[in-house]
Amino acid sequence: MEGDSRTRILHVALELVDRFGYVGTSMEDIRTAAGYRTQSSLYRHFLNKDSLTAALLERVRAEKTAALAPYVKPEIDAMLDDVLDAAEHLTRWGLMNPAAYRLCFLQRSWGEGMPVLGTGDSGGEAVSRWAARVIRRIQREGGPVRRMDPDFLIASCLGLITQTIVGAQDPAPDRIDRLAFQTRELCCAIVFADPVAMPIGAST
Q1: What is the rounded average pLDDT of the residues 148-176?
Q2: pLDDT exceeding 90 applies to what percent of the chain?
């Protein structure tokens, strides 16, 4: 079926480009890995590598957006816990889909020659902008967040999330949940203004 064929091609393309880089992956490589006998069968779905890559980014963006949508509340209503929930679930999504996360947030890892695809949200900026605006509003309202540039705070959280995902090596499901929660707590330490109380008896 048409939809199944496109899905398979995009899945193969993501794996190859994530592994070998954009320049290091050819349409011929994708055709062979996807199991097509002729180039025409591949070009029937995508005119060239740029159009295939644009379709891949669009699909990954949609998957990421769908995964985070339940946690990205309207800015006027969102609280610090909502930002932290989004951070936790972004980490979980990235750990379950590391190649897709790298496409969204680390396109430079695909290597030189990666085309500029479309305008606006490259896959990650929308979530970051939303979180920064929520933090800025909480600051204005006198909420318990650090009096620092919200963009810097969110960039620090995103760097932490990326480090967690890149550093994980095919984690088991129970470890994914643990890593996602730990990352949430560390993001809390980054943005929360009040010191975190140490448990009684904890070593200093």
Answers
A1: 92
A2: 52
95, 166 Cβ separation under 8 angstroms: no
Helix (H, G, I), strand (E, B) or coil at 139: helix
Distance CA(159)–CA(124), nearest Å, equals: 12
Do the Cβ atoms of 86 and 180 come closer than 8 Å?
A: no
Q: How far apart are CA 104 and CA 194, in angstroms?
A: 32
**Are the C-beta atoms of residues 67 and 89 closer than 8 Å to each other?**
yes
| Cβ-count burial 27-63 (b if 16+ within 10 Å, e if not) | eebbbebbebeeeeebeebbeebeebbebbbebbbee
pTM: 0.81
